[in-house]
Amino acid sequence: MTGPPINPLARAPGEHVNRSMGTLTVPDTTSKNRRALVRPLTRRVLAILEAVESRASGGYIFPGRCDGQPLNNTRKLQLTLQARTGLWITPHDLRRVWTSAASRAGLPAVVIKRLLNHASRAEEVTEGYIRVGLDELLDHAQSVEDMILGDAGLLASRHLDTRLADLLAGLPEADKQRLLAGLVQRQQGETG
Fold it and tell me: pTM of this prediction?
């Protein structure tokens, strides 16, 4: 749920996670475009990292089957997911889901590219002038995480309030009053 590809993340040593700062650093030696990558870690990602930290071996965030080696093959995980869900899911599919959620969350294209660690082309000169700080990246990354978790029914989506307001705006006043009375009656029944 962070955007960057799996390979640089898999090769990142555990000490590249800074829990107090809430960041992950992928060094230029393992980054796809050979530029160091510092990314904010969202609430759910931090919780997952804390949960797997006790089981991690070899010092990698995503250890491989061989002790002291990073994860280098996701096929076994993909087969397990397929057995449980009936879906064949690749790491790149997860990037597509993340990118689509980022777009639906309204992130600017330059921020999506930055979070995905996509390099800008020479003709995209303006992007070089846009500076997005780590705090802003965290806010954006968190909104993508919230969108994905909301879509999965694991978190009430912030966009749900907007959708509900849009639906209510189109209702006649009498329908709004009936709906409100029904909600109040239901709430009183649950608390009473």
Answer: 0.66
